[in-house]
Amino acid sequence: MKSLNDFPEKNSLAVCRVKKIMAFGVIVELEEYGGKEGFIHISEISRGWVKRIIDHIREGQRVVCKVLDVDPSRNRIDLSLKSVNPHQKREKISDWKNEQKAENLLRIVADRLNQDFEICYGSFGKKLAEAYGSLYSAFEEAAANGIDGFEEKWVGVFEEVAKENIEIPFVMIRGNATLTTIAPDGVEKIKKVLKAVEAKGADVRYLGAPNYLLEIECEDYRSAEEIMKGAVKAMLDSAKKLCVDAKFERTKG
Q1: CATH topology for 13-84?
Q2: How far from the centroid of its chain's Cα atoms is residue 248's Cα?
Q3: Which element (helix H / strand E) includes 197?
Q4: 87-165 in CATH: which number?
Q5: Is the pTM of this model over 0.85?
Q6: For 166-195, what is the mean pLDDT?
């Protein structure tokens, strides 16, 4: 959440709404900064030659611009459209939408606490944004694991609103395990191997002897891969001790 007095930092990205198109440039409103106006010179519209600006941009359009220069004393913000690639645009729009959602959720928190929104943001919203990287990230963490390091009465309400409104994204990775043995007590040995796998956080599904599906559901791929790595190691180590032949192959999807 930006204060009305805030200005964007040089080289940062800003979400803008096209306000007026002129022959030599475009005036835009910076939506994150209280509607402050910025200017895109015709030379910063596109990497190619621009004959008519209206062939590249239209009034009312939302765009993502790079901040080239900022002069608060003159209330001047110079912007570039051509310096933002499609990936940067998607990420910035996504972050902006998330912060809008976070602000709306904080308003719900303020209502339930019977407090003014600005007071809530000043007393704990800003601290949460600094602690978790953004206010939306704080709501995500509250929904998934709760808020640590704060003891005030607002914490319970904040977590309540987060869990009601934030859907935590999960990723799923899978792999096929093949377990075989000619030992008389082979079934029991295979069960022990599978228990070792489950103890490392993997879900095991029986596909029909000798095949098993290992699944890991987690909040991000890095964590999921670490869990899968540990589960496979546990499977192979246990299988070796129990004289069970074990093979593992990752699957897509």
Answers
A1: OB fold (Dihydrolipoamide Acetyltransferase, E2P) (2.40.50)
A2: 31
A3: helix 186-199
A4: 1.10.150.190
A5: no
A6: 90
